Amino acid sequence: MKQSQMFIPTLKETPADAESASHQFLLRGGYIRQNAAGIYSYLPLGYKIIKKIETIIREEMDRTGAQELLMPAMQPAELWHESGRWDVYGPELMRLKDRHGREFAMGATGEELITSLVRDTLNTYKKLPTTLYQIQTKYRDEKRPRFGLLRGREFIMKDAYSFHAETDTLDDVYWAMYHAYQRVFERCGLKFRAVLADSGAIGGKDTHEFQALAAIGEDTIAYSDGSDYAANLEMAEVIDVPKEKPVGQPLKKIAGNSGTESLAVHWFKTREATLAVFLRAEDEVNDVKVKNYLGADMIEALTDEKLDAVHPLAGVRVLADNALKAIADGVFYNKAEETTYAELDPSRDLPIEAFADFRFIKEGDPSPDGKGTIRFAKGIEIGQIFKLGTKYSEAMGAYFLDDAGKSKPLIMGCYGIGISRTLSAVCEQYHDQNGLIWPKDLAPFTVHLITMNMKNEAQKQLSAELYQSLLEKGYDVLWDDRKERPGVKFADSELIGSPVQLVVGKKADEGIIEISRRSDSERKECAVHNLLEQVNALLQTSH
């Protein structure tokens, strides 16, 4: 493609609201433009990369036997009422009404729609298992859109759904998807980790997230320095090393606040109950672990303003973190009674219903798999796979007949990849201070051919010959044939970030050009007759 004919509106200055490197360089390189908060247009360069990521995903999905379809983005509200998620999903679900007053949701995900689509057709074990996927724009009304494509209100996603008669085939497809996702992200050139995760509003039990490692990442990954264990921080299990419990003293009550509490209470509310969760004061309560322990579909942390000034444990469920089992001399201030309890033995003095793991893991803690210690890293979630079980099929009446003629709910799995997030994650890992450095399999153009002076006939003629020759050999080439100063051309080339740069300059009449890899700062001379060999060599050593 000739650059003079291509829409690449590069920017010299970084927009003030662009915080992350990916946001800055995608804007400056002419890849995207913002239309509203969290809503972007993909310009020709950006859309070329989106299509390349989609191609990789399609190839790997098709390899698993999944079949592609396309469902509407507008989803009838009654489907979400059937699943029970219309009120549970929260304000991120974009809702609207048509002219007849019928309510719809703009698809944030597709479990309800796909279940309604198959419930009358996948009605016998003979049609199972089946996996369907789509690539589609999704919508979520993020409270605080930020970091460009990393947290937007409109984004491109691949979502797949599998349907089964038995859990064995769900396991098979789950792990087939796991390995397919690994191949997708490896082909995209990403450094990533597959981590244990929480299913959140999607539901289900077993789930893995795929996290691209990046300092800007909003998720914290807890990983072992002695094994391949990795988990999202909220899901990392804390292993308590057994300790001998000291002999305790009688409980003491002291008026007022001693200011030396070793225990803390955290208050929560579910649909069914109010909870008091006790931890060591030095630990941080993990509300996801509390929610999962209870099997609740929602949980809300209660502040002091939301609590009644009554005895703190009256009529509530009391839980405690495992670490409290070994404590015999705790100190706890009861705000309602304005009394400090000293020499407190939680097992003896508190009406604890159960001990469990309710705290966040810390760096330096033992790895849950018993190998090494825990370290932290930041990650960008780019994909997640779930075993949904029968949550949606039971709620929405999606049943099949087994080989004995018995009606059973379909067993489901779902599998998502954030395509636009993957684009940004690659940018976060592949850039320098001047612009982007694309992996060769995703680059919008493999080769950037730059003519220093289009008024020089020798440079113009040689550039045209090289351009045509490279195209005939199958290279995707961007030819900067603009009548711009060399400094402008080089600055734009670094922003765009093609893997190989060719410069046709003063030695054009000698058949000599300059060649370099975008990730290198040094260009070297190359005879035209050796050009293809040199380009191939640089591409083979590129990412």
Characterization of the model:
The structure is a single chain. The chain has 543 residues and is of the alpha+beta class. The protein folds into three domains: 19-191 and 391-428, 2-Layer Sandwich (BirA Bifunctional Protein, domain 2), CATH 3.30.930.10; 252-356, YbaK/aminoacyl-tRNA synthetase-associated domain (YbaK protein, Alpha-Beta Complex), CATH 3.90.960; 437-540, Rossmann fold, CATH 3.40.50. Helix content is 24%, strand content 30%. The strands form eight sheets. Strands 3, 7, 8, 9, 10, 11, 12, 21 and 24 form a nine-stranded mixed β-sheet that branches. A hairpin with a 7-residue loop joins strand 29 and strand 30. Helix 1 packs across helix 9. The radius of gyration is 29 Å and the shape is globular. The mean pLDDT is 93. Pfam families: HGTP_anticodon, tRNA-synt_2b. It is an enzyme of class 6 (ligase). It is found in: Cytoplasm. Homodimer. It catalyses: tRNA(Pro) + L-proline + ATP = L-prolyl-tRNA(Pro) + AMP + diphosphate.
SSE layout and pairing:
Elements: H1 21-28, E1 32-36, E2 39-42, H2 44-63, E3 67-68, E4 74-76, H3 77-83, E5 94-97, E6 103-106, H4 111-118, E7 130-139, E8 154-164, H5 167-187, E9 192-196, E10 207-213, E11 219-224, E12 230-232, E13 252-255, E14 263-269, E15 274-280, H6 287-294, E16 300-301, E17 317-321, E18 330-334, E19 339-344, H7 346-349, E20 354-356, E21 374-389, H8 391-396, E22 399-401, E23 407-409, E24 411-418, H9 419-429, E25 431-432, E26 435-436, E27 447-451, H10 457-472, E28 477-480, H11 486-496, E29 500-504, E30 512-517, E31 524-527, H12 531-540
